[in-house]
Amino acid sequence: MTQISLERKVLSENDRIAGELRARFAGHGILCLNLVSSPGAGKTSLLERTLEGFAPTQRVAVLTGDIQTDNDAVRLARFGFPARQITTGGTCHLDARMIERALADWNLADLDVLLIENVGNLVCPSSYDLGEAAKIVVLSVTEGEDKPMKYPAMFFRSQLLVLNKIDLLPYVPFSMVKARENAQKVHPGMEIIEVSCLTGEGLPKWQSWLESRIASSARTVAAT
Amino acid sequence: MHEFAIASSVLDAVRTEARLRPGMRVSKIGVRIGDLAGLDPEALSFCFEALTKETDFESVVLEIERKPRRQRCSRCAHEFVVVNYETACPACGEGSTLFLSGDELELAYLEMEDV
Fold first, then answer.
1. Where exactly are the structural domains of chain B?
2. For residues A153 and A134, what is the distance between their CA atoms, to the nearest angstrom?
3. Given Cys at both, which of A113, A154, A172, B40 links A126, Cβ 3.0 to 4.6 Å?
4. B91 CA to chain A: closest CA distance, Å?
5. What is the number of other CB atoms lying within 10 angstroms of the CB of residue A100?
6. Which of residues 75-114 of B touch A (CB under 8 A)?
7. Residue contact A1–B111, C-beta within 8 A
8. How many angstroms separate the CA atoms of A174 and A194, rounded?
9. Residue B64 — very low, low, confident or very high, per pLDDT cuts 50/70/90?
10. Longest distance between any two alpha carbons in chain B, whole Å
């Protein structure tokens, strides 16, 4: 019997492509964010409010992943920015190759921000690097404050937690204190922003988080 | 449920290594899965068996080593295994601790035999 040491990541091929994408984004000073959540937490609503807040001259594009339908791309295209649907046809997550293919005919020199909306799923997208600068997990208050404990990988790998639907807090048994505690246990130091995409409450905080990230991506490319 | 995709990647690695070594047969593949990898080991084994059934790789054993989450205290430097998501330091109570390991999703080794 011969033992052969492998010592590499199972998803090394995905990570290789993601690394190439990250280098391309960095070369163009593009901020790429990967939005993840369970289905219905409000990723598309957050993107709608985000695109609404951008000046028409802002160079932003959206890739949105779903198992079926192009409903989300249709919803997001209304704001006048390029929005492309990635239909996975059954796959429960986006992978780096899907992003590479979706971007093949786009000129990255024309972009400053690329927002990726992942397939609604709190498990699988956590394993796949898409070349993003950060994963952002959206959690809605109707889902319960224990989600960070139940899906630790996703909360651990996301830099920012956007707690959505806070307009519903008076109607649901959701403890904001516990939710924050749970997120901090799984991911010490995790940034958290509370918003309601319906009323707009908290959105300025999200917008300033985003603007500071966009500015620092642009600075990085200017410095190189 | 992305265990199927992960199992396919593991099988790809088995195939690649087998091709590189004609005259030998893969008997076992060892993988490491951290608690924070977001992967169910049982589902992974199930998918691997389903993928290899009635193929040349049917007899390949998938051995999964689980890796717990480990943190280091930023105050007293104590290193500990996280139990029940409690990331505060068990030695001094400090809440701020640093992640060390536990998100592995790695191919560790392959065992091969002469045919």
1. 3-67+102-114
2. 14
3. A154
4. 17
5. 16
6. 85-87, 95-99, 103, 105-113
7. yes
8. 13
9. very high
10. 57
Top-tier CATH class for B3-67+102-114: alpha beta
Q: What is the DSSP letter of B102?
A: -
Whether residue B36 lies within 8 A of chain A, CB to CB, comes out as yes
Give the domain ranges of chain A: 12-219
Are A125 and A36 in contact by the 8 Å Cβ rule? The answer is yes
Say yes or no to pLDDT of A224 above 70: no
Q: How far apart are CA A92 and CA B44, in angstroms?
A: 15
What would be the CATH architecture of the domain defined by A12-219?
3-Layer(aba) Sandwich (3.40)
**Is pLDDT of A223 > 80?**
no
Counting every residue, how long is chain A? 224
Name, in order, each residue with C-beta under 8 angstroms of A199's C-beta and a sequence gap of 6 or more.
Answer: A167
Q: What three-state secondary structure class fits B32?
A: strand
The CA R_g of chain A, rounded to the nearest whole Å, is 18
CA angle A40, A43, A44 (to 5 degrees): 95
- Lateral strand order in the sheet of B97-101: B79-81, B70-73, B97-101
For A10, nearest residue in chain B (alpha carbons): B106
Span A61-71, average pLDDT: 92
Partners of B6 on chain A (C-beta within 8 Å) are: 10-11, 127
What are the pLDDT digits (tens) for A10-44? 999 999 999 999 999 999 999 999 999 999 999 99
Residues of A with CB under 8 A from a CB of B: 1-11, 13, 91-93, 95, 123-124, 126-127, 149, 151-154, 156-157, 182, 184-186, 188-189
Residue range A108-162, pLDDT digits in tens = 999 999 999 999 999 999 999 999 999 999 999 999 999 999 999 999 999 999 9
Task: Write down the residue that tokens 């109570």 correspond to.
Answer: B93
Residue in B closest to A1 by C-alpha = B113
